[in-house]
Amino acid sequence: MKARIAAVLAAWPLMVIASPAAAQDWAFRAGEGAAGSLADGELAGVVLRCREGAQELHLTHNAAAFDHERTHTIVLSVDGTAFPFEARAQPSERTGDDDFVAMTDAAALAPLLAALAKGTAVEVSAPSGRYTLGLSGSSAALSAFAQACPAPA
User: Fold this and answer.
1) Cβ–Cβ under 8 Å, residues 122 and 77
2) Rounded average pLDDT over 55-83
């Protein structure tokens, strides 16, 4: 019994971040009004969504639940440059698990989007853990996202 508990505890961090860590490419999905990293063909990990003309930064998780009443700090580091944001946990429309949604505006997102488009890797740090994603395809995906959901002037 102790060995089984130890095995579950040892595997828990992998279960929490397995999908985002497996993402290799980025894509834009016009039907979803979203761009982001891909895991198993689905947008997962770092996802930008267009909601009512506003750009939103989402971090997705596997089977994670967090306090919806407080803010959480999330940090995306692109090739060593850190971009910290305050975020709230909200249920994902796709999975029902909690996503972190950055509480920011397009002007604050612009430097991050530029870095993601030009960078080679992004390290994501959040209360759910830390993982690194490649940025292959991010430039094209984010360019299409910017055309579909332009930042307000």
Assistant:
1) yes
2) 90
Phi, psi of 141 (to 5 degrees): -65, -45
Instruction: With respect to residue 153, please indicate whether it lies within any of the assigned structural domains.
Output: no
Q: Which residues pair with 129 in a beta bridge?
A: 126
Provide mean pLDDT across the span 70-92: 94
Structure confidence by residue, pLDDT tens digits, 22-54: 445 999 999 999 999 998 888 999 999 998 878
- Spatial neighbors of 63 by CB under 8 A, at least 6 apart, are 15, 16, 97
Q: What is the CATH number of the domain that holds 84?
A: 2.60.40
Q: How many domains does the chain have?
A: 1
Quote the CA–CA distance of 57 and 102 in Å, as a whole number.
Answer: 5
